[in-house]
Amino acid sequence: MTLPHVPLAHLGGSPLNFMFTTAALALSLGLGYVAVSRLQDRGFAGLSTRAGWALAALALASFVLSIAMPPIGPQPSKARPATAARLEILSPRPGEVLHGDPAYLDVRVRVDGGRIVPFTSRLLTSDEGHLHVFIDGELEAMTAGLDSRIQIDRTGDHQLEIQFVAVDHAPFDPPVLANVTFDVER
Is the peptide bond before 92 cis (omega within 30 degrees of 0)? Predict the structure, then answer.
């Protein structure tokens, strides 16, 4: 699974940001539909032409807000904390071969000196965070658990990288990483 890079204001941030962006886009589409329908005399005859133009302006403003509004939820701190935490990937083992169509990768991780927590916050500590799971450089999961199962659709060699990140989802300084390669055959 590839997460697309989109130029929307909040799609890559916190759930609150995602909800705001989605709501603003939905509002702009709804208002735009009503406005265009009214201005082309295809519906909403109870609205005046002036109201149609006002709705068109509101639709445009809502769309611009969905793209340009600054984030409203917790953002990563600029000063990154250090941590004594260390990661170890327990599964898969280096060079492990998975079979299946699709194959399922069972990931197990041990964190020493750190604690996995389910919340997001701007109040950073050196021992609390989440795990970000990457396959071949693509983010597959953000998790507050030490075990996960990931579907792998492509055969061949793959690299699993896990990063222990602070509670604001940004890396510690220096980053805490562990990686392993594995293979998928049908």
Answer: yes
| Distance, CA of 165 to chain centre | 14
94 preceded by a cis bond (ω within 30 of 0): no
CA distance 135 to 160: 5
CA distance 129 to 166: 4
Q: Residues 40, 45, 51, 54: is their CA dihedral positive or negative?
A: negative
Residue whose token pair is 């935490």: 85
Residues in the chain: 186
CB atoms within 10 A of CB 172: 21
pTM of the model: 0.61
**Would you kindly state where each structural domain of the chain is located, as residue ranges?**
15-68, 86-185
pLDDT tens per residue across span 91-131: 999 999 999 989 999 999 999 999 999 888 888 899 999 99
Question: Do strands 96-99 and 171-185 pair parallel, antiparallel, or not at all (unpaired)?
Answer: parallel
Q: Does the pLDDT value for residue 3 go beyond 60?
A: no
Report d(CA 32, CA 82) in Å as an integer.
48
List the structure tokens of 139: 């983010």
- Output b/e per residue, 69-90; b: 16+ Cβ within 10 A: eebebbebeeebbebebebebe
Assign domain 86-185 one CATH number from 3.40.47.10, 2.60.40.1120, 2.60.40.10, 3.90.150.10.
Answer: 2.60.40.10
